[in-house]
């Protein structure tokens, strides 16, 4: 039992389970998954489907935060990626053509990589603080998206494109499959190569990393490029789901949800140690919360307050220091231990 | 003044203190001695309220006191100054001294009175420090003095100094000691913890020795020899240090005739180190002797490419090369253990094993990871070879003691099989046993043909293992000496103080 509660994914997982169970109490059919026309339907599927963009962005954000940075521009990248893809498709003579859609996707993702490169170079080459460097694109990016769409909301009617955010493959939502592939691919990339170790070293102690010969600049650029790439895919999903590119509102404030997901997942904003699985759990917690608000009928005027309260509670439960204070039971000689791991043993 | 009896403190799996008695008399400087892990820090933490003892009693001035928190300790009259000074460099000296207890009047803080009182206080301890100047404009040593003044002014019965001298040079230590003596004469009981035996013998009146959480004994400094003290601390008669003798002349000449592994000609950097020449041969240990800030570290960093030289050339392994980055140096077989383990060496978040493989993995690039089995094998091999304790590759490196952390850094570089190993203060803050092990390791590595640059403030140590010695002063290499029998610490000191008699 102790070993279980000590595991660093224990609290995020426990919180998610509690949230899901709370939903079942309110809505008994919450866990029901139905097969209609060969497609899976149900609240759990919805959570994964609507949470897909957030999971992707949080995944990219995890890499950046591991290096000790932060990327505020992912929301803008979402808007730009969706805007470019939709405007290319809108100009096609036949919007249903698969070739045209693939071209649009390729251009949108290519532009996302360029945006990530821009962030990475500002941070790694020029040495601007990450929060400032990415703030530039966060603000300017919405303008770029407006420029691409000419200030209009571009609506499209393309079945192949709608597959990305709203379609099904083998009974599963296509977006969920994409997320599964990207998460698995990232996990392999991080833990089968030495990328994870080197990222954690750079984020944990930049100067020491330089002195052991790690070329931190490349790793930093790579992290920002990867983050923008994830945001680009998320942008495709979001615009595909609403069949439109909205430069103003697509992905608005999603960077904050993503940062929150990373933190709930147990990765420190200081950089260093990170957890991909934790981030996925964190993103699912946030999405479950949003879904809960809709399904349980929390009045619209208090949804934000409700969300804020739950997030605060989640963060407090995650904090070893807070748990030690609240759940302390007969510990006469509790050492004010600096190592959270030890505090968790006792809690 | 202070009496602790039967103090016992148990951590999960470890009996950190086992029935330790300790007493502190007013008006004495008392040294607490022991190897790393002997229980010194735990005892201090019990005394200062960071930990609560499982059993035992603390009496202050004959009255039993319960110390449950650092605040209570301070109220009871026990002040502590730690190694890392906890002051705000951006505030003025006076603000730092009175922070949290500023003299107030109508309309807020009375700044002028605060500065005046701070000035009086500093003058009382004969410290020539401007109370209005920002603390950041003073050196670390002066900041430490300010911290002590502040601590004494708050409550002046017992002053605990935990490793106060580890980053000070000789002059600064002398200044600190002068202050400590003045406090002692005013009746303050000063508890002093240090790894430097010389300093302990210079300043302390009595000492208490701990070993493995138990009290070994309490001694008057004047009646104890250094050898006896080390014997008490380690529990065995220590010969390892004496076993190492300065190398013989014929060996030195044979080594010097080899092709140099590194040759610096006119290498220098403005504001860092004046241009210097240096050859390091395979199998040779080159000692850098000089005070803190004499340019030792700066010279080493140039040889490793950690800083870029703006003068001169560097040849590594016979071919000339501009080492612009550490990566380039590592690629040519140069390794560098920096002076400051915490900020420049360890990645504290990562485990022991991860820290050990970091340099090797960095040189392979992220696309060519070490296989898990190869990694486990290498890490296991070096943990064993350097007897890193505890021998567990999966615990965070921050949980290790200073000596073991240093060994982790050594392992990190040895694993890359360098041709030249540059060690900047590898034995600072390391207990006597680990110190001897590190010195022996250096000698045996050189015996296997590695070139070693060994930087240390302890002249005895430099003399014991080096083949030749570079003497540095004021950011300049002022002399190169073959380590012959007539080279003594006194002679080195004289050269450092007066320059070379030519």
TrEMBL record, chain A:
Which keywords accompany this UniProt record?
Cell membrane, Membrane, Transmembrane, Transmembrane helix
Single annotated GO MF: transmembrane transporter activity
Localization, per the record, is: Cell membrane
Q: Which residues cross the membrane?
A: 9-31, 43-65, 72-90, 102-124, 131-148, 168-190, 219-238, 250-269, 276-296, 302-322
A Gene Ontology CC term for this entry?
A: plasma membrane
Offer one Pfam family short name for this entry: BPD_transp_2
* Protein's membrane topology: Multi-pass membrane protein
Q: Does the keyword Lipid metabolism apply?
A: no
Q: Which PANTHER family match?
A: ABC TRANSPORTER PERMEASE PROTEIN YPHD-RELATED-RELATED (PTHR32196), GALACTOFURANOSE TRANSPORTER PERMEASE PROTEIN YTFT (PTHR32196:SF19)
Name assigned to this protein? Sugar ABC transporter permease
**Which species is listed as the source?**
Acrocarpospora phusangensis
UniProtKB/TrEMBL annotation, chain B:
* Keyword Cell wall biogenesis/degradation appears in the UniProt entry: no
Annotated Gene Ontology cellular components are: plasma membrane
Q: Does the keyword Translocase apply?
A: yes
Give the main location.
membrane
Cross-referenced PROSITE patterns, in alphabetical order? ABC_TRANSPORTER_1, ABC_TRANSPORTER_2
Give start and end of each ABC transporter domain. 2-237, 251-499
Name the SUPFAM superfamilies on file: P-loop containing nucleoside triphosphate hydrolases
Location of this chain's protein in the cell: Cell membrane
Its record classes its membrane topology as: Peripheral membrane protein
A single GO molecular function term of this UniProt record? ATP hydrolysis activity
A Pfam family of this chain: ABC_tran
* Gene3D superfamilies, per database record: P-loop containing nucleotide triphosphate hydrolases
Instruction: Cite the entry's keywords alphabetically.
Output: ATP-binding, Cell membrane, Membrane, Nucleotide-binding, Repeat, Translocase, Transport
Q: Which PANTHER family match?
A: CARBOHYDRATE TRANSPORT ATP-BINDING PROTEIN MG119-RELATED, GALACTOFURANOSE TRANSPORTER ATP-BINDING PROTEIN YTFR
- Full protein name: Sugar ABC transporter ATP-binding protein
Species per Swiss-Prot/TrEMBL record: Acrocarpospora phusangensis
């Amino acid at each position: 039992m102790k070993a279980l509660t000590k595991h660093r994914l224990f609290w995020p997982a426990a919180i998610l389970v509690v949230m899901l169970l709370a939903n079942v109490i309110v809505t008994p059919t919450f866990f029901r998954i139905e097969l209609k026309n060969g497609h899976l339907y149900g609240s759990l599927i919805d959570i994964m489907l609507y949470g897909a963009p957030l999971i992707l962005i949080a995944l990219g954000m995890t890499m950046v935060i591991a290096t000790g940075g932060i990327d505020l521009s992912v929301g803008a990248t979402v808007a730009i990626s969706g805007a470019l893809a939709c405007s290319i498709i809108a100009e096609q003579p036949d919007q249903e053509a698969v070739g045209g859609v693939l071209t649009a996707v390729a251009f949108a993702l290519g532009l996302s990589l360029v945006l990530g490169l821009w962030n990475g170079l500002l941070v790694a080459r020029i040495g601007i603080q990450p929060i400032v460097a990415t703030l530039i694109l966060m603000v300017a990016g919405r303008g770029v998206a407006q420029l691409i769409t000419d200030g209009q909301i571009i609506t499209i009617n393309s079945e192949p494109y709608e597959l990305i955010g709203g379609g099904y493959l083998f009974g599963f939502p296509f977006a969920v499959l994409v997320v599964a592939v990207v998460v698995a691919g990232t996990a392999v990339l991080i833990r089968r190569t030495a990328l994870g170790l080197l990222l954690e070293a750079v984020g944990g102690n930049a100067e020491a990393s330089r002195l052991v010969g790690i070329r931190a600049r490349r790793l930093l650029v790579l992290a920002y490029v990867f983050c923008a790439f994830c945001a680009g895919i998320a942008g495709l999903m979001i615009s595909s789901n609403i069949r439109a590119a909205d430069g103003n509102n697509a992905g608005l404030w999603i960077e904050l949800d993503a940062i929150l997901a990373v933190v709930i997942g147990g990765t420190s904003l200081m950089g260093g140690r990170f957890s991909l699985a934790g981030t996925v759990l964190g993103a699912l917690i946030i999405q479950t919360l949003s879904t809960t608000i809709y399904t349980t009928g929390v009045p619209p005027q208090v949804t934000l307050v409700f969300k804020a309260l739950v997030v605060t509670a989640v963060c407090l439960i995650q904090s070893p220091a807070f748990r030690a204070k609240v759940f302390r039971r007969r510990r006469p000689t509790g050492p004010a231990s600096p190592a959270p791991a030890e505090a968790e043993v006792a809690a | 003044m202070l009496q602790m009896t039967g103090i016992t403190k148990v951590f999960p799996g470890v009996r950190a203190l086992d029935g330790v008695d300790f007493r502190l008399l007013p008006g004495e400087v008392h040294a607490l001695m022991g190897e790393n892990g002997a229980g010194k820090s735990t005892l201090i933490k019990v005394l200062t309220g960071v930990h609560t003892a499982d059993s035992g009693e603390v009496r202050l001035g004959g009255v039993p006191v319960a110390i449950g928190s650092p605040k209570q300790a301070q109220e009871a009259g026990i002040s502590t100054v730690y190694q890392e000074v906890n002051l705000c460099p951006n505030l003025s000296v006076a603000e730092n001294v009175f922070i949290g207890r500023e003299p107030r009047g109508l309309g807020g803080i009375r700044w002028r009175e605060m500065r005046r009182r701070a000035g009086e206080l500093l003058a009382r301890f004969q410290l020539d420090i401007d109370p209005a100047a920002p603390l950041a404009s003073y050196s670390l040593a002066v900041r430490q003095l300010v911290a002590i003044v502040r601590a004494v002014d708050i409550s002046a019965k017992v002053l605990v100094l935990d490793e106060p001298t580890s980053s000070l040079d000789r002059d600064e230590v002398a200044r600190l000691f002068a202050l400590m003596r003045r406090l002692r004469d005013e009746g303050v009981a000063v508890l002093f913890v240090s790894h430097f035996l010389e300093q302990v013998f210079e300043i302390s009146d009595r000492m208490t020795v701990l070993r493995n959480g138990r009290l070994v004994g309490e001694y008057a400094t004047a009646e104890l020899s250094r050898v006896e003290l080390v014997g008490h601390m380690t529990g065995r008669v220590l010969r390892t240090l004496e076993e190492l003798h300065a190398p013989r002349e014929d060996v030195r000449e044979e080594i010097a005739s080899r092709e140099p592994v590194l040759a610096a000609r006119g290498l220098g950097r403005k504001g860092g180190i004046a241009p210097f020449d240096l050859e390091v041969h395979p199998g040779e240990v080159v000692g850098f002797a000089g005070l803190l800030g004499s340019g030792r570290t700066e010279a080493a960093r140039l040889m490793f490419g950690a800083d870029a030289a703006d003068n001169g050339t560097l040849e590594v392994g016979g071919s000339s090369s501009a080492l612009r980055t550490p990566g380039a140096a590592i690629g040519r077989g140069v390794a560098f253990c920096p002076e400051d383990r915490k900020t420049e060496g360890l990645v504290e978040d990562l485990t022991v094993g991860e820290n050990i493989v970091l340099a090797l993995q960095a040189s392979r690039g992220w696309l060519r990871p070490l296989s898990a089995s190869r990694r486990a094998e290498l890490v296991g091999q070096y943990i064993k070879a350097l007897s890193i304790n505890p021998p567990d590759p999966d615990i965070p490196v921050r949980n290790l003691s200073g000596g073991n952390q240093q060994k982790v850094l050594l392992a990190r570089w040895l694993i890359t099989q360098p041709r030249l190993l540059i060690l900047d203060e590898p034995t600072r803050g390391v207990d006597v046993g680990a110190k001897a092990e590190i010195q022996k390791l250096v000698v045996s590595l050189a015996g296997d043909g590695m070139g070693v640059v060994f930087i240390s403030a302890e002249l005895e140590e430099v003399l014991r293992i080096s083949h030749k010695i570079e003497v540095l002063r004021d950011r300049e290499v002022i002399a190169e000496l073959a380590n012959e029998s007539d080279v003594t610490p006194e002679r080195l000191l004289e050269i450092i103080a007066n320059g070379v008699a030519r």
